[in-house]
Amino acid sequence: MAEPVISLRRLSKRFGQVWANRDVDLDLSPGRVHALLGENGAGKSTLMSILAGRYAADSGSVLMHGKAVSFNSPAQALDHGIGMVYQRFMLIESMSVFENLALSAGKTSGARNLARGIERIASQYGIAVDPDRSVFELSMGERQRVEILKLLMLDAEVLIFDEPTSVLTPPEVESLFAVIERLRGEGKTIVLITHKLEEVLKLADDISIMRRGRIVVSEPIGARRMSRQQLARLMVGRDVVLRVDKKNVPVGETVLALQGFSGDSPLGGPAFADVSLEIRKGEIFSIIGVAGNGQAGLVSAIAGLTRARSGTLTFGGTAYSAREWVGARTGKIAYVPEDRHHTGSIGAMSIAENFGLTRLDSYRSGVAGMLLDRARMTADGTRAIGAHDIKTQSSGDRAGSLSGGNLQKVILARELTRDAQLFIAEQPTQGLDIAATEHIWNALLKCRERAAVLLVTGDLKEVLSLSDRIGVIFNGRILEIIDACDSDQVNRVGLLMAGVVS
Amino acid sequence: MIRLEKRAQPLRFKGVVAASWALAITAVLGCLIFAGLGVDPLTAYAAMGKGVFSSFDAFSEVLVKATPLIFTGLAVATAAVMMLWNIGAEGQLVWGGIGAAGAALFLFPGLPAWLLVPLALAASALGGMAWALIAAVLKARLRVNEILTTLLLNYVAIIYMEHLFYGPWRDPAGFGFPGTAQVPEAAQLLRFASTRISIGFPLALLCAVFLYYLLNKSIWGYQVRVIGKEPRAAHYAGFNVTGKILTVMALSGAFAGIAGMVEVCGIHYRLQTGLAAGYGYDGIIVAWLAGLNPLVVPFTAMLLGALFVGGEQLQSVLGLPSTISLILEGTLLFGLFAGQTLAGYTLTISGRSGEAR
To answer: What span, in angstroms and rounded, lies between the C-alpha atoms of B357 and B354?
Structure first.
């Protein structure tokens, strides 16, 4: 193996009382993909943020080609050829791809040269993206490609990917992997922060596993030929079987039916058109698709948050026109939205107060129900903390202080107590660790025993583990509805997501 | 090495820390300003302290100044909790004064105090409310930026008030001085002992407590706080944001309007030039210095009141320009912004090992 490009030596970083990283040693070699595995909060992102110049380490050193370096900003790290593709993209949405790239390139020798440079690098690494489009129009996968381009334009030698596939769907993941392989072939050093084991086994040359701020294993992937179970055990520190208990549940009456449902996307993305489907009590109906194919608008319209253009919606036996539905929205729909930080919860409020968000009517007290029953809110919050094993001190803690998985459990617990006929879960396990994913999957399966469940996700594994029926959405249309028991048909889901109808 | 480091967790008592920073920064900047004016800073601060605390009468003026400031502070805070910027408390205060004077002088001049005072109060609240609603409706229906509308409407309100007391409402027996006639004695607020503190002050404290409970213990208040903190969550939960813009601005305007009534019926006894003295703008500082907490607003209002009273002392004792208290108020605002930023950081002193706290 070649000499390491980067060596981290006894690197430590503390946030308040918590050691995010403690005495971490790590070597990264050129032309290799190094997977950094670990549960949420294990310290992967912090470690790489130090390398990328976003945080300063409390102690320890970073060696580059054997020489000690230190960065005070991401810009300085980039000057040394180290760049990071963050989970939340750092792009200016109202600007075009070209403008974003020009902005990060800084001083250039004119627009034409820059355009030529973009074209050259894009074709060298097989990164297809239209420089004239505005970023807000782009899918998550396309945005990610812009981020990668940005780093390559700055001659990055070390590229760090933070959970790169969490917002992508199978075809986009495939093309990302192709790009990464190309980068590896060109001798770049790749770090892949992830907790998805398949990705590691597929892509990585070296693997390091972090647990509670320390590296527990660091070795070439072939060294022990580890299985998924072995990796998972090293990651979590205990045996984890990603297995769900899917009972047979009798399918009941139709709860929600859509006929010719069409509408716009709330964010100006692609619309959805002519959607017809039925969801029955006792089943999990999944809508799977690559992000940005109209599912956001569809869910928003079903939840009654935005108004569809046309079509009818039948809920609990009553038919509503697209116009009527917004006003008629009953309390019978529970909804776990995709954005758990700013839509599903209020970070600055306590866990107990977050219980009021969608269930305010159940906390009315006093004259004409104008007062807020805080005692009951606190009781519900405390009960949820116990029932869902939410890791926090008390229901008085700010929701914003919770980790992603625990926050999602709070939202889930709140929506579960609404006793809804229809339960909508939108990307419910995106970015969550194994334990939290397992918990949420089981909760959804349990939920279908008393309600109809609509699962909207881009995660194929999630869909295959949970669904009874699968609707594949592409370009705003449901291409096909597939029975999850029909294994021949199920194999086509990945292709359908890419719009391939065979 | 001492360095500033961003806090991973927001401080529990961020407001207190921010306010302390603000006061400390103001004190230091004040020293520089005094020194620049050729006055020994310690002498200047001593003079201010003496002006405020030398006698009960002197201190009572702090509460007199604080009374309208509490109302305008509450007005700004009410709107700001929902992330609405009501820069128009000044104009709403003016309309409150117009409402109170109109009620006392023209609508119900003959009524006894127990009827007239509440009616004047209601008229002032309605006046402020109506003025604030103009901006609120524009915001709710047409998404017009409330910062601009509330600010610009201040000038309209002040000019209209001037039109009234220079024109149709001018005191016929006033020898041509601009101003309305004195409000009837029944409309004049009760004062405590020999001071100028009126029952407006306890009323202001009551309003602060009322707003605190409204925001924290009512369904309406919960929704307002959610809308202010996470508008997307409010939309997801199906809250009526448009309606809240109207009710929040109405309440905000009502508080500012009452400030006008307290000034007209408690201090000036008439509508006159001194009414628009800037209390509406000062309310912005009062509210933010209090971290938008209604229960803290009375204290920050008193602090600002003390600054004004002390500033007058500087003028008369040390011969400093009369604008000195405005300069100090300005530094307090800068100190506040700096303090809020600094409260997000922690000072760390790290040794070579990097292990030291």
So the answer is: 8
